[in-house]
Amino acid sequence: MASPFAGPSSPRKLTGSTPGILDSTQRDRLLTFSKSTLSFASFNPRTATSSQLTPDARKLSLNEELYNPKRVVIETSPTGESFWRFVPKARIDEGVVDEGDWPRVIDICGMLYECSQDQWDIYKLDPLYECRVRAPPASSTIIRVSPKSPESPQSNGKRTSSKAGIPPLNPRKKLHTGSGNSSLDLGYDDDEVEEVEDMIVDQTMPPPPRARSASLRRKREEISQIRQQRRENISRRAEKLSSREDEFNFNFSTEDSPGRSQSVPVDNGGKRKATLLVDPLRAADLEVEEDLFRTTFTYKQTAQRKRTRKTSPGAAKRELDIQRAKRERRRRDRQQAKVIGRRQQWHEQFMQEVYAEVPDLKSPSNDIPAQNIGDGEYDDDSGSEDENWNGGPSTDTSFDDDAARVAAIAESRRKLAELEADRPLWEEEARKRALRQRVEEESQRLKAEERKWADMKRAEVEARQAEMHRKAQETAERTEEQDATLREEAIKRQRERRQREQRWAYGHWTPIRALERYRVLSEAFDTTKFNVYDPLTFHVIPWPILNPPAKMSVEDVDWNAVELFFESVRPHMRSQDFKSFVEKSQRRFHPDRWRSRGLLRTVADEAERSCLEVAATTVAQALTPLWRDITGR
Q: Is the pTM of this model over 0.90?
């Protein structure tokens, strides 16, 4: 509301969200009910949403400005019900970005008032007033416009609202008052309202029906005809199917009832094809009826490409695992039998070599009587008695042969006994030979692996050296290209500097020209990366002094010259611009800034480097009191 304590020299204040402070008829144009109240808020899609959650992308628009929420007006009826809509935008002049900050002084019908944002929004809602934001330094204005003649309800196709009851709400349509179509010039379109269509919850009445166009009616009639024709086709096909039900004969007396599996074709080695037959005992499914009889009565097998699977993939895998285990077992048995066979063969060969050393014995002659040989000895007395008794001749030759045979047998038995006694020895020797053989094989394998490892290491070293050589070559080429680029850029900047120096070399020198030169050089100085090809020089630095460039030297840069420069240019700048100007200058000549940029390292001459450092420090020290005075630090 207006402040009663405003003096005659100060503008009157308009605050609050009550309409009709200056125009008593404004309440009748804005309020649906006489006792309704208005309130204002800012629409933001992220309202009542945690900052850790990402907003739903479906409820955001591409033209949404989250940093500048839209204003909405909320009308609360006496019964407590609330209605809202967007506040229309004001008219703005060319070059104006937004409506500005509030409160501020505006011109309302020729009078100046200090207006709040709520009162400004009330006048934007009023169709009898036009709100315009003008470019500075002009003030924003609110002027009264002539009302437009309302159109008849038949022409616009919308029902007018009445104050006797609650008006119908529609999220796609704006609220209407007694002013007719005054909302057509509000400055926003239906796209902004459609953004929050899904967010409206409290709807007291359904939206009014829309007028159907002739094209829409024709389209719906065509759809109805197509649906009716489809239903007739389905009915005819159902009649055909019902007439064929008698053709199906079922034999329920068989012991092995196949059920529905009879409709599956016999496995013939080809690809499986599903055969769909209609079950006459089951009622037609209305949901799948259309798709079932869309093309044909049944689907028959047309090709033989794939065999029917008789076992599950798991059973096949288990069978493969069993077969693999059997093969492994047979392989181990074969290896074990081979080892046992080689061992038996070696033993037989050894025994053959032993028996080869035993002499071949002849069988005894028939004229020699049988002897009792038990332990390798014979009885001479019994033999002589037998010979004397039989009366046979006894010669020395036969006696020698028997003795030789007995001696040979005894020798053979002795050798076999020695061999059996020495068997652990030669078995130990055999194990030692096998161990030596395994050691030799392992040694050869290790040597082969060492050679292979050495070859791999040598290849890795060669590859690493080649990679290092390649990288060094690339680095050298890249460095050369960078140096060439730096030289070209340095030549280009030097050419531009000469052109700028020629610009400032002629004409009358004034503080305005000194300020302009300082700004141009400061922009180039802040963005230039000085290096050995483009070193820092005295004339490149934007010294804040009033001396002309032709007569400027390092001795001219002192405390008084810097203060005189800023005192001379201050009247030509606004206070806020001058504050920003001083802050940037103070940061530009700060010693830490110079060290971080490495400006003095590019100067080869030691004396010149010292002079530049002293001059920059002097400028920074002279700017510090001025900077503190302006910023209040």
A: no
Rounded distance, CA 159 to CA 167, Å?
10
Cα–Cα distance, 548 to 531 (Å, whole number)? 27
How far is Cα 159 from Cα 112, in angstroms, rounded to an integer? Answer: 39
Spatial distance between the Cα atoms of 499 and 515, rounded to a whole number of angstroms: 18
Q: What is the pLDDT of residues 394-408, one digit of tens each?
A: 445 556 788 888 888
Q: Tokens 């030289």 map to which residue?
A: 487
pLDDT at residue number 58: 52
What is the three-class DSSP state of 588?
A: helix
Alpha-carbon 398 to chain mean position: 112
Q: What is the DSSP string of 344-393?
A: HHHHHHHHHHHHHTSPPPPPPPTTSPP---SSS---HHHHHHHHHHHT--
DSSP 3-state of 434? helix
Q: How far is CA 414 from CA 351, 410, 602, in A?
A: 15, 6, 108
Question: What are the DSSP calls for 62-76, one per residue?
Answer: TT--TTSPEEEEEEE
Q: How far is CA 483 from CA 487, 490, 496, in A?
A: 6, 10, 20
Asked if 568 contacts 525 with a C-beta cutoff of 8 angstroms, the reply is no
**Is 142 within 8 Å of 129 (Cβ atoms)?**
yes
Measured distance CA(47)–CA(44) in Å, rounded:
6
Helix 606-631 crosses helix 575-588 at what angle (to 10 degrees)? Answer: 150
**Among 560, 570, 555, 559, CA closest to 514:** 570
